[in-house]
C-alpha cells in the first residue's frame, strides 16, 4: 500500500523526510495511473528504507498540483531535502516508466536491482 499524502501532511511526509521521496500525482479517473500502480508497488518494495513512495490525488490537492505545475497525470517527482531532483511525466507506458524508475534506483539506492530479472545465485562477497 502506498502512503496517501494531502496538502496538510505534505510538509511532514515529503519535504521533511530524511530519505528521498517519490511522489506520485494521480487521479481516480486516470487510466495510466492505474496501469503503473503495480510497477510503483514493486519499486517501493525494492527501495524500502532508501526511497519513500507516496501518492497524492491531484484533484483533491489542487494547491500542490499548482505548486508543482502539473501538466499531465501521472506525474512523478523525486524530492530530496525539500527539492525536486527528478521529474517524470509524459511517459508513454510501462517501458518508459521502468527506465525512469531504474535510473532513480541507480542514483538513490545502494544496491540497484533490475526489474523482471532473476537474481544470480553465484554472487561473491568482497570486503572493501
From TrEMBL:
One of its GO terms (molecular function) is protein-disulfide reductase activity. Residues 1-106 form the Thioredoxin domain. CDD domains: TRX_family. Keywords: Redox-active center. GO terms for biological process: cell redox homeostasis. The keyword Electron transport does not apply. This is Thiol reductase thioredoxin. Transmembrane segments: none annotated. The keyword Acetylation does not apply. GO terms for cellular component: cytosol. Belongs to the thioredoxin family. InterPro entries: Thioredoxin-like_sf, Thioredoxin_domain. It comes from Brunnivagina elsteri CCALA 953.
Amino acid at each position: 500500500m502506498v502512503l496517501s499524502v494531502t496538502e496538510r501532511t505534505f510538509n511532514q511526509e515529503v519535504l521533511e523526510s530524511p530519505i528521498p521521496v517519490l511522489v506520485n500525482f494521480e487521479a481516480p479517473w486516470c487510466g495510466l495511473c492505474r496501469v503503473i500502480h503495480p510497477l510503483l508497488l514493486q519499486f517501493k518494495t525494492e527501495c524500502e528504507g532508501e526511497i519513500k513512495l507516496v501518492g497524492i490525488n491531484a484533484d483533491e490537492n489542487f494547491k500542490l498540483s499548482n505548486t508543482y505545475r502539473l501538466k499531465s497525470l501521472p506525474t512523478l517527482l523525486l524530492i530530496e531535502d525539500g527539492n525536486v531532483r527528478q521529474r517524470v511525466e509524459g511517459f508513454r507506458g510501462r517501458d518508459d516508466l521502468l527506465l525512469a524508475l531504474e535510473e532513480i534506483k541507480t542514483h538513490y539506492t545502494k544496491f540497484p536491482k533490475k526489474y523482471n530479472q532473476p537474481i544470480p545465485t553465484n554472487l561473491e562477497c568482497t570486503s572493501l
